[in-house]
Amino acid sequence: MKDLFKHLFQGISLGLTFFVSISVLMDYINNGTFLLENWSFTKMAIGSAIVGIGFSVPALIYKKSKLPYGLQVLIHLGIGCSVMLITAFCVGWIPTSLGIKGILISIVIEIISAFIIWFAFSFYYKQEARKINKQIDKLNL
Predict the structure, then answer these.
(1) Residue 28: what pLDDT?
(2) Which of 27, 47, 75, 138 could pair with 91 in a Cys bridge, judged by C-beta atoms 3.0 to 4.6 Å apart?
(3) For residue range 20-59, what is the model confidence (pLDDT) as tens digits?
(4) Residue-by-residue DSSP string for the chain
(5) What is the CA radius of gyration of the chain?
(6) Can you give the pTM of this predicted structure?
(7) How many CB atoms lie within 10 A of CB 80?
(8) What is the pLDDT of residue 33?
(9) According to the model, what pLDDT value does residue 120 have?
């Protein structure tokens, strides 16, 4: 239960951090005229928190699962990407007005982004594990 709350908090925090960072970038790109109307800001903030949870909670599968690592990754990212795509359609991140081509391009970009972020976290945690293992090796000498 402790891990669940930890992952919930981390997911919400990361989701909202990405949302704010992207919003600031959009405001900069649009010379300070980035405007969200009709509750768009609220919907997108809630959607970002949901996407954060959608990726963080399924990461619990890495803790005690006896499944092969590749299957764990598939389950984790499958759930996360599904939550992200459903949320993206509901919130309006996927431009349905651009037709099927625009929708498919958006979906591909979102899935590639998810894999890049997963890879970055995976790389970070592998580096941390190496550091810890080196410290353990020093203690065992």
Answers:
(1) 86
(2) 47
(3) 898 889 888 878 777 777 778 888 899 999 999 999 999 8
(4) -HHHHHHHHHHHHHHHHHHHHHHHHHHHHTTT-----TTHHHHHHHHHHHHHHHHHGGGGHHHH--S-HHHHHHHHHHHHHHHHHHHHHHHT-S-GGGHHHHHHHHHHHHHHHHHHHHHHHHHHHHHHHHHHHHHHHHHH-
(5) 18
(6) 0.78
(7) 24
(8) 78
(9) 92
Q: How many residues does the chain have?
A: 141
Name the token pair of 96: 């349905």
Q: Which two tokens stand for residue 128?
A: 């941390």
* Structure tokens that stand for 15 in this block: 């989701």
Distances in whole angstroms, Cα of residue 25 to Cα of each of 12, 20, 66, 95, 122: 20, 9, 41, 19, 25
The one-letter amino acid at 94:
I
Positive or negative torsion for Cα 85, 89, 90, 92 = positive
